Amino acid sequence: MGQLLVNGIVAGLLLALPALALSLTFSVLRFANYAVGSYLSCGAYLVYIGNVVLGMPLWLAASAGAALFAVIAVGIDWLAYRPLRDRGGVTLLVASMGVAIALENVIRFFAGNLPRAYNVPVARPMRFGDIRLNHEQLTILVAVFAALAVVWIIFRFTRLGRMMRAVADNPDLAAVRGISRSRVVAYVWLIAGMLTTLSGVLVGLDANVEPQMGWTYLLPVFTAAILGGIANPMAAVAGALTLGLAEELATLVMPVHYRMIVTFLVMVALLLVRPWGLFGTRWVTK
Amino acid sequence: MTVYLIATLTLVAIAALAGLALNLQWGMGGLVNFGLFGFYMLGAYIAGLLTVQGLPPLVALGVAMLGVAALSALSALISVRLSEDYLAIVTLGFAECLRLVISYEGWLTRGMLGVSGIERPLQAWWPRGWGDTGFLLLALLAVLIVYTVLQALARSPFGRLVRATRDDPGVVEALGKSVLGVRVRVFAIGGAILGLAGSLHAFYYSYIDPTQFGPIITAYAFMAVVVGGRGSNRGVVASAFTLIFLLEGSRFLIDLVPGLGASELAAIRLFLVGVGLVALLIFKPDGFGREPRSALADKTSSRF
């Protein structure tokens, strides 16, 4: 049981960063970025190039990859999403599917379909009584909490964070107060790009690096974000932890390969009962 | 060469059906169905499994259409009260879960082994050696029927209502019509067409397994609708028979370009589909076709 809880928390933490990235972009841009899964895979492959092809240590490769992909995410926004900004959420939604397909196939073209692994030393798992914690899980724990702390500090205590919250809350009012929306949007993509790259590395550590990795995370990431109330970035983290625990505990009654069905059921139940999220506040839909 | 042409045209006809279904759901109704391939897969499996059990293929096809329509309506009920983003993720989740169930519940679906020996409908009608041509004619007939029905529907009062719910659900609600009812029906009719497309897929290959179905089917349908112009059935059929024909036909390039494997070629093709989708939405948002009887609406509505 204790082991299940630990695994559930780790699974939830893996979801936390992409869910945070998704709801961050949603809160500022009002569109659900379907390409978030492909961002995750792309980041993971960029770091793979640094780590295995160029022989950098993983932390260095991850930092370089995150910085590089953050710039790419801003570039994608410039090329694909910016021209469509005034056309409503549905058009952007379909465009983001196009972006997702394109990115995934760039990966397939250059890297093929075979799963790959990062070059990290193999280590024996640590034991605390009955509970085993392997080094990958420890890395995930530390990295996710560090990233969350940084984002939280930016969000709460900096000028940029205030600007982001202002634009998310009321873009017109923010514009009147002299906040440049396009600058805030660029920063949001930078942060989202770094978060998805980091989560890609962690998912790659936990399992493998393969073109499908982002795709399999898409549904849980959306569910986690909806659980938190999709326009509420920090609550997405709580949503991710809840979902991770739910998925892990469900393995007591369901086969492991049906994880995604648990996720789907959670999402359906939530949309029927509390569509504004477990931690969100009710808002008016049309 | 002729054999290849017939095979490609059959696939294009099936893709055109999926495109027409999406054009009703998304083009006319504004409902984003990202899980299109799941409904298509469900149609293929219902038709395939029932045919293998000994049911006449045409009866199996009918059951598949009804079954997919019912499940489409159900999945629409979950989320159409909310905004479009949610319908997109719910349909996608439904499709992924369905693929998992089909992959693992071997007692029902034969799992990853797949269902083989699916008989085609009306096979006895054609002389020996003309089976593929006959099936192509059948698929084209299906496209013709669906096209005619959808054109009639688009011009009918119901069609107007569907477009109205897309453009402004508030007004429709204020006029005393049920937006939810319209959306569920649109999703169900689209689902029936997807069931038909999936059934034809199963009949054509006579063998189905879970790996045949993936998001790429959804991507092709979106491409057909975006190129053809949302709401224009004629445009969707035309774009399916030109664009998807070209994309499918590009398999030929393997023989012509040395050093290019099948998986690289598939990656290039899908990359082009993805980039093409975005580029079209940016540069040619209305596609190349026109929605019937809504020239005014096109000019005044900025949302679509």
From TrEMBL, chain A:
Keywords: Amino-acid transport, Cell inner membrane, Cell membrane, Membrane, Transmembrane, Transmembrane helix, Transport
Bilayer disposition of the protein: Multi-pass membrane protein
Location (main, coarse): membrane
Compartments in which it is found: Cell membrane
GO terms under cellular component: plasma membrane
Transmembrane segments: 6-24, 31-50, 56-80, 92-111, 138-155, 184-205, 217-246, 258-277
One example of a Gene Ontology biological process annotation: D-alanine transmembrane transport
UniProt GO MF annotations: L-isoleucine transmembrane transporter activity; L-leucine transmembrane transporter activity; L-phenylalanine transmembrane transporter activity; L-valine transmembrane transporter activity
Pfam family, one: BPD_transp_2
UniProt family annotation: Belongs to the binding-protein-dependent transport system permease family. LivHM subfamily.
Record protein name field: ABC transporter permease
Species name: Tardiphaga robiniae
UniProtKB/TrEMBL annotation, chain B:
Localization per Swiss-Prot or TrEMBL: Cell membrane
Pfam families: BPD_transp_2 (PF02653)
MF-aspect GO terms: branched-chain amino acid transmembrane transporter activity
Keyword Zinc found: no
Membrane topology: Multi-pass membrane protein
Residues spanning the membrane: 6-24, 31-52, 58-79, 86-104, 135-154, 186-207, 213-229, 236-254, 266-283
Any one cellular-component term (Gene Ontology): plasma membrane
Keywords: Cell membrane, Membrane, Transmembrane, Transmembrane helix
Name of the protein described by the UniProt record: ABC transporter permease
Source organism per UniProt: Tardiphaga robiniae
Lineage, top ranks: Bacteria, Pseudomonadati, Pseudomonadota, Alphaproteobacteria, Hyphomicrobiales
